[in-house]
Amino acid sequence: MKTVKEGEIRRREILDVARELFVTKGYDHTSVNDILKIVDIAKGTFYYYFASKEEVLEAIILDIVEEGARRAEIVVKDQSIPLLNRIMMAIMAQAPEFEGSDEIKEELHKVENAKLERLYLKAMLKRMTPVLQEPVLECIKEGIAHMEYPTECIETILLLGHMMFDCDTFEWKMEEYPQKIQAFLCHAERMLGTKEGELNGFLQMFGQIP
Amino acid sequence: MKTVKEGEIRRREILDVARELFVTKGYDHTSVNDILKIVDIAKGTFYYYFASKEEVLEAIILDIVEEGARRAEIVVKDQSIPLLNRIMMAIMAQAPEFEGSDEIKEELHKVENAKLERLYLKAMLKRMTPVLQEPVLECIKEGIAHMEYPTECIETILLLGHMMFDCDTFEWKMEEYPQKIQAFLCHAERMLGTKEGELNGFLQMFGQIP
DNA sequence: AGTAGCATCGACTGACGGTCGATAGAGGTG
DNA sequence: CACCTCTATCGACCGTCAGTCGATGCTACT
């Protein structure tokens, strides 16, 4: 039995199902056959749209990163939020964790998904750094922040936020988080060269991670 | 034809060959058969010593981390080096990169090795943080450094050093490195709360990374 | 009705991780 | 020396998986 659909629609179907599976079962533990069963297509169709399983992964990661970057861009443009807050809120808005997508939350970070994670991180840094460039430079101009290496500072804070809270790099226990978040904010303040305690307001916001 | 060897020797043979292959070809692209061919044993023998290919990987990573930590411990104990320098030198001594083992250098960080890398990072942080605890606390006591979260500061600097220079997270070009290293040292100074420029002496040392 | 070509099918392939029952050899015992 | 025991070793075999390919159904245009 053959169901013919327009190319772009099939492609999206495959992408959506694969994303769901990669994120819930892990990339390695999702077989192409798993995807085929759910989308209800034959193997040939899958490989008609994608050259390999890995190509699907890369496309999905670009999607996730792009979605995050869009959310961040909205925050950055919002003049009603104080400048420094905008930067931190953009970082939080960008992380897939904070979005409703609970699916991603738990599963993105298991060791099995190291490949997914690594590709995500690289793509995210490349996409997000320019987004934060402008507000950070403005912070410097306004004297709220003081630093010699703005680009590197952004890269570093994005990296740290991701490794500490998005992935479970340190395998912290639940009760350690408040302390770790405070430390993170303190380090961010120091790198940005803001007044001490300027970022304190973010403690509660991060509190929702558990 | 059967060659019988004492258990521990066989185990080491497998471990050594596997390490060489994982590091040069990548974990995913090394098959158990590749290992068997070189060690010249049958499959059953391999699985007599290890429950899975992954168990071999974990054992290798523990080895690598332990070797690095030993080098770091020697540096930390060396009273002839100024305290602050000891900390940074220990971090550098620990990284597999800076050791003679060029093999590891290039290959550890390709995306194919994401799993190896991720496991390495977790194990390294767990092993290295306590090593640096003591000298950092002493820095604080002596007034060379000022911080509220010493443990978290160590974790952060270890993580940053690894992600920036050991893995190729940012895919920097050769000519960008001097700037990135300077920025890293600047951020480390700020997080540690030292005098500005205290870490300048490390610029050349890092210079050997290419 | 005819046809061009896009989208779909699914049997097949080769490689890989892992299992298992058989067995060779070393060392001990009488 | 004959017998036994236990450990290290062997390699055929299994199920699974990513990826291939020639055949073919379906659509749209002539």
UniProtKB/TrEMBL annotation, chains A, B:
InterPro entries: DNA-bd_HTH_TetR-type_CS, Homeodomain-like_sf, HTH-type_Tx_Regulator, HTH_TetR, TetR/AcrR_C. It comes from the Bacteria. Residues 8-68 form the HTH tetR-type domain. The keyword DNA-binding applies. Keywords: DNA-binding. PROSITE patterns: HTH_TETR_1, HTH_TETR_2. Residues 31-50 bind DNA. This is TetR family transcriptional regulator. It comes from Acetobacterium tundrae.
